[in-house]
Design a protein that fits this description.
Layout (H helix, E strand, L loop, with lengths): L1 E5 L4 H12 L3 E6 L7 H11 L5 E5 L5 H11 L3 E4 L6 H6 L1 H21 L4 E7 L23 H20 L3 E6 L2 E2 L8 H10 L4 E3 L6 E2 L2 E2 H13 L22 E6 L5 E2 H12 L5 E3 L15 H7 L7 H15 L6
Parallel strand pairs: 1-2, 1-4, 2-3, 4-5, 5-6, 6-11, 7-10, 8-13
Antiparallel strand pairs: 9-12
Helix pairs in contact: 1-2, 1-8, 3-5, 5-6, 9-11
Length: 338
């Protein structure tokens, strides 16, 4: 099966590509290798994919409509896993145009490619950030999510709405996956675990927002990748029980589905930092700060649909995940602990 993975040099894209390659799929990956964070890290991920005979890579930008059209027409993908995006809540406060260009316009180009070329199933990345001002826990795909707190979240909600339009108009099966605080080896340097580790090793304080009191449903990247591939295998179908008088936001009478992928076990940030201290054998100097604009206080994924329909439930304990990240970081950056 020929699968397109957009954002293949990205954090999640690398792990999804590797999982597909290991089970024998033919993977075409593309990425624009932008400098939002260290390009060397993206190139290092690609170097680990390139030895697979069934992997090929194109350097492309989502915003390049003609190039995306040409790629889809030439390669005739069976399925598409769309992970390329401008990520990060905080950067969206500084550069909102980058989010609309990549996440909205770019995603439209991917959906058009799928529509015109008979793609069997489009799976795309959404985010727990779409829950925004919601405080009813755990977060469920069956809850209404019309109050995003950042442009990043708004663009991902837009992707879900666009997907429903394509599913409804053209019968394109689409599955949106709301990722919950992904972490692990080869993670993004702008994310908390990476920043905390780097600063602690350099003897610098770490910025801890909301005074360390907020909770996150930290989800290990291997679990995310497994969930993505399982969801790709489970082609979205119309919900025969969908009621337009009381519409369920998570399903539709079109071939459209949404799933949370999270560990289902929220952890307080202060506890997360303690686990990192244990793994590094270092004590963190905390710079306690109030909540940052655009952030949500807590996240907690209801993953019953993923378990019941797709047959998968993430399970990596956060203690194990943090240790595995630290082991990778020390090896990748050749850091010797004293």
């Amino acid at each position: 099966m020929r699968v397109l993975v957009t954002g293949a040099a990205g954090f999640i894209g690398y792990f999804v590509s590797r999982l597909l390659l290991e089970r024998g799929e033919e993977v075409v990956g593309f990425d624009n290798l932008n400098d939002y964070y260290d390009v060397n890290l993206k190139k290092a991920r690609l170097e680990l994919l390139e030895p697979y005979a069934n992997f090929s890579f194109r350097k492309l930008d989502l915003a390049d409509r003609a190039a995306i059209d040409e790629l889809f027409a030439r390669e005739r993908f069976a399925r598409v896993v769309h992970l390329a995006a401008q990520a990060g809540v905080r950067y969206s406060l500084q550069n909102p145009h980058a989010y609309v260009d990549s996440n909205v316009v770019g995603t439209l180009h991917v959906m058009e490619g799928c529509r015109k070329n008979g793609v069997e199933h489009l799976v795309y990345a959404s985010t727990s950030s779409v829950y925004g001002a919601n405080t009813r826990m755990p977060f469920s795909v069956h809850h209404n999510v019309d109050h995003p707190l950042s442009i990043y979240a708004a663009t991902k909600k837009a992707n879900e709405l666009m997907a429903h339009s394509y599913s409804s108009l053209y019968g394109l099966p689409t599955t949106g996956l709301r990722f919950f605080t992904v972490y692990g080896p080869f993670g993004r340097p702008d994310m908390a675990l990476f920043q905390f580790t780097r600063n602690m090793l350099e003897g610098k304080p770490i910025d801890v927002f909301n005074y360390g009191k907020h909770q996150r449903d930290f989800t290990f990247v291997d679990d995310i990748a497994e969930g993505v591939v399982r969801a790709m295998d489970h082609i979205a179908e119309p919900d025969v029980n969908w009621n337009p008088v009381a519409p369920d936001p998570g399903t539709s009478n079109a071939p459209y589905r949404l799933y949370n992928i999270g560990n289902g076990k929220p952890v307080e940030l202060a506890k997360y930092i303690e686990l990192l201290e244990d793994a590094l054998g270092l004590k963190a100097e905390l710079n306690l700060l109030p909540m940052q604009a655009g952030d949500v206080p807590n996240t907690w994924a209801d993953v019953h649909d993923l378990a019941d329909i797709v047959g998968y439930r993430p399970a990596t304990p956060v203690e194990e995940g943090v240790r595995r990240f630290v082991d990778w970081y020390l090896e990748f950056y050749d850091v010797q602990l004293h």
